[in-house]
Each structure stands twice: as structure tokens, then as C-alpha cells.
Amino acid sequence: MSFGREKTNLQAIFTERAPLLKRIIARLIGFDVAYHRFTGKVTIEKFERDVPVERFEDRAIWELMYFGKTRPRDAKI
């Protein structure tokens, strides 16, 4: 399966929305959660004995809840 991101619809870094004290505490304990929603083309292929037997392509919406370190807002995903 492959997904090609074409457009970012939403990028929410939760610590950016918290009050200053909570933001500082969250960063100190490593709580840096983000939610991303983006669209693009998805391709799903079915293989039997390493031979492709089915292929499906269409547009899709992808939603991702990320619990690691977030990137700056201007970074490419």
C-alpha cells in the first residue's frame, strides 16, 4: 500500500493550544502530541507469490495521531 500526500488539511500540535504553564510542563515530560489530516492518492496492491494480481487506486483522506516529538509547523511531512 502507498499513500501520496498532496494537501495538508489540518495540522494540530496540542501543546501549542495549551496555556503557557501547561505547555512548559508538557514539553518537559515529553508530551508532544499532534493530529494530522491530509489527502492524496492511495494505491493498494494484492500480491500472490510476488506477482501483483489486483490493484486499486483512488483519492483518500488520511488521519494520523502522533505521540512522538512534533516538527515545526513549516516542516514538510
Summarize the structure in words.
This protein has a three-stranded antiparallel β-sheet, with no helix packed on it. The two termini are 18 Å apart. The chain is elongated and about 55 Å long. The protein is mostly beta strands and 77 residues long. Helix content is 12%, strand content 56%. The relative contact order is 0.29. It has one helix at residues 20-28, and strands at residues 2-13, 34-48, 51-66.
Secondary-structure blueprint:
Blueprint: E1 2-13, H1 20-28, E2 34-48, E3 51-66
Antiparallel strand pairs: 1-2, 2-3
**Low confidence ranges:** none
Strand percentage: over 45%
Q: Which sequence of strands runs across the widest sheet?
A: 1-2-3
By helix and strand content, what is the structural category?
A: mainly beta
Q: Sketch the major β-sheet.
A: 3 strands, antiparallel
Radius of gyration: 17 Å
Q: What is the gist of this entry?
A:
The chain is mainly β. It has one helix and three strands; from the N terminus they run E-H-E-E. The protein has one helix at 20-28; strands at residues 2-13, 34-48, 51-66.
Note the main attributes of this structure.
three-stranded antiparallel beta sheet, about 80 residues, 1 helix, mainly beta, 3 strands
